[in-house]
Amino acid sequence: MSEHNQALASAFDGQAEKFEFAPVQSDPAALARLVREADLAADCLVLDAGCGPGLVAEAFLNAGHRVVGVDLSTEMIARARRRCAAFGNRARFERLSVTDPSLGGPFDAAVSRYVLHHVDDQPGFIARQVALLRPGGILVLSDHTTDLDPDRSALHEELERGRDKTHTRNLTAGDLVDLFGEAGLIDVRMVEERFTLDFDEWFDRGTPALSKADVRTRLLANPGIRGFHPTLMTGGALRIDCFRAIVRGVKPSAIETTNSQVKAEAGHA
Ligand SMILES: C[S@@+](CC[C@H](N)C(=O)[O-])C[C@H]1O[C@@H](n2cnc3c(N)ncnc32)[C@H](O)[C@@H]1O
User: Fold this and answer.
1) Partners of 46 in the beta sheet?
2) Nearest CA to ligand 1 atom 17
C-alpha cells in the first residue's frame, strides 16, 4: 500500500465511528437523492468505491441493487459488513484499494461518495472504475466542490488540509464533469446541491495538521470561498455552507466508441 493509502487507512480507522453517525454523511434525504440521480436499471451490480461504513451501499441495497464495497480501512469494512448484514449475499465488503488488481468486474455501475478529495491520482481513480464497468455501465461520483478562483480554491484546500492531513484536492463541479469527459464517458449529467456543516462536528472528526482555533479564525476571515462559506451563529456555533456535486456518466458501448472515433477522424481529415 502507498504511504498515502496507509495514512488514509489509519485516519479512517480512527474516525469510522464518528463518520458513520455524522449528520451530513448519514442524512437519509441526501442518500435518497444520490440513488435517484444514479438512475440505475433494476437489480444492478454496483461497486461502492471507498464504501466507508456502508451508508451508500445500504441505500443502493434498499433500492434493490447488489453491492460490492471496497475500502482501505479495516474498521470501515467491519462497520459496512455489520450495517448491511441483513442483505446476505447481495452485499460483499472487502478491505481493498479500488486499484487492487484482485478486484474484478464487470460491474453495471460504480459509485463513490466523498472519496475523490482523498485520492492522489484523481484521473486514475476514475479510469480504474471505468475499466471495471461493462459497456453501457454507469459511473456516479459525489463530492463537495470548491471555488472556481484558484486563489480562493487554494485557501479552501489549506483549511481542509489543516483539518485533515489526508485531504488531497477538491475540484469544481466543472472540473468533475471534465474528468468524466476525459475518461471517455458519455451522456454526462451533473447536479449541484447545498449542504451545511457544523464547524465543531466537522473539525472534531478530522485528522488535523493545524489547531482548531487557527482553522476557525482563518475561515471566518475568508467568507468569500464558493462552497465553503462560514456564518457565525448566535451562541458562537459556526455553520459552513457548502456545495456538493453528483455527476453521472455512461461508459460507451464498443459501437458508440467506434462511431465517435470515426467522427473524430473525419473531423481531422
Ligand atoms: C470520506 S470517506 C467516504 C465513505 C463513504 N463513501 C460514504 O460516503 O459514506 C472516504 C473513504 O474512502 C476510502 N478510500 C480512499 N481512497 C481509497 C482507495 N483508493 N480505495 C479504497 N478506499 C479508499 C477511505 O478509506 C474512506 O473510508
Assistant:
1) 67, 109
2) 50
- Whether residue 260 lies inside any domain: the answer is no
How far is ligand 1, taken at its centre, from the CA of residue 258, in Å? 34
Q: Write out residues with Cβ below 6 Å of ligand 1.
A: 8-9, 12, 25, 50-52, 55-56, 70-73, 76, 97-99, 113-115, 118-119
In a domain, 32, yes or no: yes
DSSP state letters, 40-103: PPTT-EEEEET-TTSHHHHHHHHTT-EEEEEES-HHHHHHHHHHTGGGGGGEEEEE--TT-TT-
pLDDT one digit per residue (tens) for the chain, 269 residues: 899 999 999 999 999 999 999 999 999 999 999 999 999 999 999 999 999 999 999 999 999 999 999 999 999 999 999 999 999 999 999 999 999 999 998 999 999 999 999 999 999 999 999 999 999 999 999 999 999 999 999 999 999 999 999 999 999 999 999 999 999 999 999 999 999 999 999 999 999 999 999 999 999 999 899 999 999 999 999 999 999 999 999 999 876 766 666 666 666 55
CA 55 → CA 45, 68, 82, 232, distances in Å? 16, 13, 11, 30
Query: Contact at 8 Å (CB) between 69 and 151?
Result: no
Q: How many domains does the chain have?
A: 1
CATH number at residue 74: 3.40.50.150
**Residue 178 is part of which domain span?**
3-145+168-194+243-252
| CA pair distance 129, 84, nearest whole angstrom | 22
**Which amino acid is it at 88?**
G
CA 160 – CA 155 distance, rounded (Å)? 9
